[in-house]
Amino acid sequence: MMDFFLQLVITGIVIGSIYSLLALGFTLIYKATGVVNFAQGELLLVGAYICLQFTVGYKVPFIFSFLLTLVFMFFFGFLIEKIFLRKMIGEPIISIIMLTIGLSSVLKSVVQLFWGTSTRTFPQIFPEEPIAVMDLQISYVYLASIVAVAVFLLLFTVFFKKTRVGVAMRAVASDQQAALSMGINVKRIFALSWAIAAIVSTVGGVFLGNINGINTSLSHFGLMVFPVVILGGLDSIGGAIIAGLIIGVLENLAGGYIDPLIGGGAKEVFPFVVMILVMMIRPYGLFGTADVEKV
């Protein structure tokens, strides 16, 4: 019984770490621009298919395919902001949100046009034999996912805290007018936010593709980001990371223990139940900042 519990927790940590990456991109865009990005899941989808195309279509070794995909998606996210979002600066937030919803539909349609809807798989990249840790069997792809996500989260943490560009992004997120007065190019920071969001989505998409295969349903992970960012707090990068792990583990435990009792469905719904409960107690999330308005 304990082995089953630990297996669910480990799998939940793997999925939760990917949620953390996606939530990082989501929170970064929100903090820098005030935009809720409904196309996060489609960025994940595009990145996964691009990497698959490099690996399978062009026979590029996986590690180089992965790096090429990250470069491609960096510029792809940059162009999305420059072509579509920059023209919306100063427009009502609801208009920008609707634009991201439309963008998500367009990106998914483009993916279906080029690659269809059938499930595709990466070639065997990691060893099939799992690693035995006491009585637990942990696959190499799970370990690789956790390590890769941890490395990227560490890199971005250092980037935000130690580099000039990272500090500029934090300044823009804190106060755009003050950042402008200090000579920071806010438009460039907006574009960089989308570029980084595209990169972190791609990392998640590639490793999810190695675990489960790739099809258009992969984009639903973008929807699962919402309970994570609400739980962590829309404006908290650290909260997004911690909340991703919490949601991943809770979701997997619900799937392992509750789904067999009710015939399924708890795993998909449970994160949103947690989100609602948290919002009833702390509307700004576990680590978010409460906005106080003076009247």
Automatic annotation (TrEMBL):
Annotated source species: Flexistipes sinusarabici (strain ATCC 49648 / DSM 4947 / MAS 10)
GO biological process, one term: amino acid transport
Keywords attached to this entry: Amino-acid transport, Cell membrane, Membrane, Transmembrane, Transmembrane helix, Transport
InterPro entries per UniProt: ABC_transp_permease (IPR001851), BCAA_transport_permease (IPR052157)
Record-level GO cellular component terms: plasma membrane
Domain of life: Bacteria
Keyword Cell membrane assigned: yes
Protein known as: ABC-type transporter, integral membrane subunit
UniProt similarity note: Belongs to the binding-protein-dependent transport system permease family. LivHM subfamily.
Main location: membrane
Subcellular location: Cell membrane
Topology of the protein relative to the lipid bilayer: Multi-pass membrane protein
Molecular function via GO: transmembrane transporter activity
UniProt keyword Ligase present: no
Transmembrane segments: 6-28, 35-56, 62-80, 92-115, 140-160, 189-209, 221-248, 269-287
